[in-house]
Design goal:
Rossmann fold, single chain, alpha/beta, 7 helices, 13% strand
Length: 167
């Protein structure tokens, strides 16, 4: 496994399934990397729950998937040898409480805090995401916006979400 492990945010998984998305090429390339056991890429249980909630919701995606279709995609993700499912840290709640206090988080932003707490509890400090602004306030994280150049996903510089973005 790669020493530089990185988490794939839910929006990466969603865009990787949508060839009409402007983000598809970079996201598909990242997800394709998970076919190799040493990809260093991971997801958290929170990502899978959010993925299911979004792809089955007609208010969030133009063509929602059925429950069974969404579950099948999740099972396919879990079968990939290079996509590590992070365990829930035993101190998860204590970690997110500390993060909430330090960053004055309220409302639905708590879900990103819980994801960050899961990452940090597993020693992960890098995240691929198009929701850059959700994670940049956390100095302990390296936020990578995927781009495609020479066929490889890599860091990008956009600080706003693409207009076609979901999730």
């Amino acid at each position: 496994m790669s020493a530089d492990r990185a988490l794939l945010d839910t929006n990466i998984l969603i865009h990787a399934l949508d060839p009409t998305s402007n983000c598809y090429p970079a996201c598909d390339a990242l997800v394709e990397r998970t076919k190799a056991a040493d990809s260093g890429l991971c997801i958290a249980p929170e990502n899978l729950a959010e993925f299911y909630a979004i792809v089955t919701n007609s208010r969030r995606v133009p063509t929602p998937r059925s429950s069974e279709e969404a579950l099948s995609v999740i099972e396919q993700f879990l079968e990939r040898p290079g996509l590590e499912l992070l365990p829930v840290p035993t101190d998860l709640v204590a970690r997110w409480i500390a993060l909430v206090r330090r960053h004055s988080v309220v409302g639905g932003d708590l879900f990103d805090i819980q994801l960050i707490a899961t990452m940090l509890g597993n020693g992960i400090t890098r995240i691929y995401t198009y929701h850059r602004d959700d994670f940049t306030p956390f100095a302990e994280l390296e936020v990578i916006v995927p781009t495609v150049g020479a066929g490889e996903p890599g860091p990008g510089t956009p600080s706003t979400r693409p207009s076609s973005q979901q999730g």
